[in-house]
Amino acid sequence: MDIREIFAINLRAARKEAGLSQEELAYRADLDRTYISSLERCVYAASIDVLDGLAKVLGVDPAELLRRPEGKARAASGPKSRKGSKAG
Q: d(Cα 11, Cα 55) in Å, to the nearest integer?
């Protein structure tokens, strides 16, 4: 699970916990509703400033929006192939 997915899951959960629609969250954070939707669908990556603004509106610590959900193991990543390496 990459950081965009983690952020999207946490953003949606925090928004729902706060009882806000995407439209209301966008309004309070001075963002476009379609941008909130795009963040929740991993289409865009939020800047640090957007992350901070959303966290303030949602009443959570910004780090909470980047915390890996419990029970979600980090995907094992093997060594990446390098140019010129031989495939077996």
A: 9
